[in-house]
Amino acid sequence: MHPHGPADDAVAAVRAGRLRTRRRTRGVTLLLLAALTAASFTRIALGKYVVAVPDLAAVLTHTYSGPADYIVWQITLPRTVLGILTGIAFGLAGHLFQRVLRNPLASPDIMGVSSGAGLGAVVAITVFGLSGAAVTASSLAGGFGLMLAVILAAGGTRAKIGTLVLTGVAAGALTGAAINGVLTRADVYAAQDAMQWLTGSLNAASWADIAQVGLALLVLLPVCALLNPAVDTLATGDALAAGLGVRVQPVRLAALALAVVLVAVAAATVGPVAFVSFMAAPIARGLGRGAGHAHHAALVGAVLMVGSDYVAAEALPGLALPVGVVTAAAGAPVLLWLLIGRGKADA
Predict the structure, then answer these.
(1) Is pLDDT at 340 greater than 80 in this prediction?
(2) For 50, phi and psi rounded to 5 degrees?
(3) Which residues of 162-197 are buried (b: 16+ CB within 10 A; e: fewer)?
(4) Distance of CA 112 to the CA centre of its chain
(5) What is the per-residue pLDDT across 213-238, written as a single tens digit (0 to 9) for each?
(6) Number of C-beta neighbours around residue 298 at 10 A
(7) What is the 3-state secondary structure (H, E, C) of the chain?
(8) Whole-angstrom distance, CA of residue 139 vs CA of residue 50
(9) Among 129, 144, 201, 335, which residue has the fewest nearby CB atoms (within 10 Å)?
(10) What CATH fold (topology level) applies to the domain 29-346?
(11) 101 touches 161 (CB < 8 A)
């Protein structure tokens, strides 16, 4: 029988800590799944036209015909499903940006990637009169072009993270000005369509949009899962990550590229919905007591999209707002809170 010593106590403490972490992670996951389920049910069944639970079950199983069948299958269910899918994409994109750049302010919204995707889509809509997959491709090109310009302007692939973030903020401001310039010279009807898209909205959700985003996520989510261990290691710092065998620059560039694709795919369908990418990761970290997990950020993004869409549609009687109005109103206090927190930390 071996004597019980300090080494055994240390091993036991490490195991206990890992067990608590796993339990907390599972608990947060279950909490977010429950929140998403509640938000989805509320969005589908408790709108202006209330659908009772038995009727909802009958509608979903195609054993009911009536007004509820049209409302659920053509309006509330597509909006809910598209909100979940695009929320997952926005949440993951924000997580990747903040993880690899190790900055809570580094999100596609703040660094201008969403604006770049928006500029590509606005040009496609107002100048060339495109729609559908062509707008998606233009949005993707705009996002990648903006990210490439930011990297080059910051000093190339070995640019300092702080410089990269500040350059992204400046590029986002310039891109916003370019969008306004394009809109002022566009046809009034095309400009109106583009403005509605820029605000971010689920009003025109369709099953074709759901299929487009769903197929993209079927490809992108496995890529994110494969890249995630290296991204988590990179969050500990470049020197430590390199010591553990991570190829720092290729992983960072791959993660940023993946985030740009996620933003472009979601934004091309519902518009660059403000602050969802920015809010998802900090909320997930807060729930996990500092631990940032990709699937938590994805679930938070989905909850934010579905919940905000319900508030936008139902909060004001007789007025249906775009979802981007609600997320922008919610995101501004979060941004202020993070800025105040960083200021106190630097003091």
Answers:
(1) no
(2) -80, 130
(3) eebbebbeebbeebbebbeebbeebeeebbebbbeb
(4) 14
(5) 999 999 999 999 999 999 988 888 88
(6) 28
(7) CCCCCHHHHHHHHHHHHHHHHHHHHHHHHHHHHHHHHHHHHHHHHECCCECCHHHHHHHHCCCCCCHHHHHHHHHHHHHHHHHHHHHHHHHHHHHHHHHHHCCCCCCCCCCCHHHHHHHHHHHHHHCCCCCCHHHHHHHHHHHHHHHHHHHHHHCCCCCCHHHHHHHHHHHHHHHHHHHHHHHHCCCHHHHHHHHHHHHCCCCCCCHHHHHHHHHHHHHHHHHHHHHHHHHHHHCCCHHHHHHCCCCHHHHHHHHHHHHHHHHHHHHHHHCCCCCHHHHHHHHHHHHCCCCCCHHHHHHHHHHHHHHHHHHHHHCECCECCCHHHHHHHHHHHHHHHHHHHHHHHHC
(8) 37
(9) 129
(10) ABC transporter involved in vitamin B12 uptake, BtuC (1.10.3470)
(11) yes
Tokens in use for 26? Answer: 């599972």
Joined tokens for residue 255 = 């993660």
Could you tell me if 327 and 302 are in contact, meaning their C-beta atoms sit under 8 angstroms apart?
no
Residue 129 burial (C-beta neighbours within 10 Å; 0-12, 13-18, 19+): exposed
Q: How many other CB atoms sit within 10 Å of the CB of residue 54?
A: 9
pLDDT in tens, 129-178: 777 778 878 888 888 888 888 888 887 767 777 788 888 888 888 888 88
Please, which pLDDT band fits residue 344 given cuts at 50, 70 and 90? low
Q: What is the CA radius of gyration of the chain?
A: 22
- Reported pTM: 0.88
